[in-house]
Amino acid sequence: MFLSAVLAAATLTACGGGSGSDPDVVKVSFKQSTDNKVRVMDTYLADMKKEFEKAHPGKKVKLVPIKAPDSEYYTKLQQMLRSPRTAPDLVYEDTFLINSDITSGYLKPLDPYLEKWKDWKQFIDTAKTAARGEDGRTYGVPDGTDTRGLWFSKDIFRKAGLPTDWQPKNWDDILDTARTIKKKVPGVIPLNVYTGKPAGEMATMQGFEMLLYGTGEDPLYDPEQKKWVAAGKGFKDSLTFVETVYKEKLGPDVSDALDPNIGTRTRGELLPEGKLAINLDGSWLPQDWIEGSGHEWPEWPKELGLAHMPTQDGRAPGKVSMSGGWTWAVPAKAGNPDLAFEFIKTMQTKQNARKWYIANSGIAVRKDVAEDPEYVKAQPGIKFFTDLVAHTHYRPAYPAYPKVSTAIQEAMEGVTTGDTSVAEAARTYDEELDSITNGEVIKK
Amino acid sequence: MSAVGTRPRRSLARALPAGPGVVLLLLFLAGPIGYCVYLAFTDLQLTGQAESSFVGLDNFTEAFGDKDFRNAVWLTLVFTVVSSLIGQNTLGLTLAALMQRASGPVRTLTGGIVVVAWVLPEVVAGFLLYAFFRREGTLNAVLDWLHLPGQNWLYTLPILAVSFANVWRGTAFSMLVYSAALNEIPKEITEAAQVDGASGRRRMWHITLPMIRRSIGTNLMLNTLQTLSVFGLIWVMTRGGPGNRSQTLPLYMYEQAFQNSMIGYATAVALLLLLVGSLFSLVYMRLLRTEV
Hints:
heterodimer; A: 444 residues; alpha/beta; 4-stranded mixed sheet; B: 292 residues; mainly alpha; 15 helices; 78% helix; 0% strand
């Protein structure tokens, strides 16, 4: 059975229906939510289609939704991109994998279009680099981003006698606060840091990288030498932080932390029910608490506080965040690239971009929208997370990244369960990194 | 002369009706398998690479050098032996034997319950057993009621939990096979043994088992092959975790193919899994031959 699944994946790349050759139709592929109640993107794109078709008489937009969870969406998309017969004209690409798809030759450089597009200068620089290939050309237009920080329960803080306008200055502040909570408010989880393989990329990005990028020395990748960086002091310090959280029982019970559903539980249960004091997590959490989500929690702005993640010892700029997000890209094998870019322009007028950010609780990557009062007031916390964009980091999402990420998760899991020491975990990571990248590793 | 001339023509005409079937088989079965074998010797990736190339045996040497692969092979063997050889097979035989003696209604009821577990789609069964084993699940609720300590079974004993799930799901098949086989045994033989004063256990060991040996062999083979390819059940319950502690070969393959995008490497692993399945089959076929 499984053999046939792998086979299907391999053979699918060679066949498929449809054709991208009708010059008047733009085919747009996007990720449709697996939750039937969530139709944010469908509604938005239907509006854009109407607007586009009105402005371009005789042209049609055909929406091609792909209904799948993230990891399967990538797989399906990559299979479509391999052949001119299945490649759409426009695709929705996660910055997580865009570089990998650029290397595969699946995407078209957009520089000739971007040069002539006056709105492009509104996009902030870090967001522009997210869709830039190693060849220096840009392959996608970002439609928003996300940032990360510390969510905390004001109620638990009050019970522990802590200030409800909490802002830790460094890692020790966070750990000390968690220790105080553990002592004074028994029965709650003081601090959640995602960890281990079951949590997947959530562990790497919300957990480990939020620490690592605040150590100031060890980025994962050196863009100048185009090499990955071996585990140095910052890497080990970050692992030690994770180890401390779980060894001192400041975090969730290890078996809960390593449950694949920990993310859903944190948002849906632990935070709303007041069982978790501090949560290191992303800007999108309120998505789950708005009306119609199934976990309505309109009181959250009163009950939760927000603090930015400090750097390890408070060194400048004092705060750290990681960003991901999605981009609109044109496949190399698209039949109508020109028309596809016209559709991007329609979606990215200032009004339409603002509409999109507000609809999906996204964080703006356009300067004009970020300053727009309507956007800033749309949701509590949006200003806090938008301000973090200035101090955010994008992952080195090169082709080896997914494997590097898994290696990080394994290192985290080792120190979380206590099966391996920090030194051992770092050594194993170095070995894995070496084999993943064929030795393209530097020590710092 | 004429005989020599006509024979090929006649056999050709005879083969004609089989033609479309052969073509379809070649196209949809042999074709993909051949392509799969070819891919196993390339470094094809789903993304992250402009061109794929032939790499010879690299994928295989890499697999054997990878501790995660060896771990997956070991777990696959544990999973197969515990859940298929011991669990499904023995339990299915026991149930079938017990049901021979049970009254009509009891037989129908037991049979019904067991078969429902088998009819359920793999993924649904996975969710049910996840709900059973999880920390706030049914098992711990029962243990708590009995004042026994509970634990997070999916974390402490993941491979045993998924093995149990597979036993739960797959026993019905063995039960049906063995029920049919037991019904085939002529009544006179067992009655004669009974008259001769053979105890129940002796009758089972010296008469029943030898007479259904063929079914045992067939059942073992089918069970093993099915168990080797179990994916959905484990994926839903543990996703191969925590860590890699329930990552059997199919899950390892999935991770390599669709999370790490390494299609070439994953197909090589698929071939190795095929090899493991063939080895098991060979052993069973030998057993069958000597006993008949």
